[in-house]
Write a structure and sequence with these properties.
Immunoglobulin-like; 2 helices; alpha+beta
């Protein structure tokens, strides 16, 4: 076996080990918040917001009937909002903001890697009976979505819509 092939096998093995650890069921344990250090990376659906600039809080409830309430929210272009995400169910739920295409792609990846750990400012993983927070600036006009990407939840229709005008 040549050195390039050996290196490829070693890299694949290390990746498999790291994925197994990051995607373990305990990866989500106790998580009911958004990342403390939000990375301000521009996305198609906006950018991480400064909590001091949030003038409005929108509560979004998640339940075990695989629904969000409300299912639709409206935001003004350029507005920074605090999304207070409440898990009213008995199982872990999450809220992830993105484009419909991005969320579908991520949901497919979640099926392949259940329990995948997330740590992005546009995501909140919320244990049963807990709350999480996302502060986001919607600086792009359009229609975006939020969804729970835990395997089976997205497929059951746990999706909402964000209109930015």
């Amino acid at each position: 076996m040549n050195n390039a092939l050996k290196t490829l096998f070693v890299a694949a093995g290390l990746l498999a080990i790291s994925l197994a650890q990051a995607h373990s069921p305990s990866a989500h344990a106790g998580r009911s918040h958004h990342p403390s250090q939000a990375v301000a990376e521009q996305k198609e659906w906006g950018i991480a917001g400064d909590p001091k600039k949030a003038r409005r809080t929108i509560e979004i409830r998640m339940s075990d009937d695989m629904r969000f309430a409300p299912r639709e929210i409206q935001v003004r272009l350029g507005e920074t909002v605090r999304l207070e995400v409440v898990n009213a169910g008995k199982v872990l739920h999450e809220l992830v903001i993105g484009t419909p295409q991005e969320l579908r792609s991520h949901a497919e990846m979640m099926k392949k890697h259940p329990g995948m750990e997330h740590d992005e400012p546009y995501m909140a993983h919320v244990d049963p009976g807990k709350k999480g927070t996302i502060v986001w600036t919607f600086n792009r006009a359009g229609t975006f979505e939020f969804a729970c990407l835990i395997p089976g939840h997205f497929e059951a229709g746990m999706i909402g819509r964000i209109s930015v005008k």
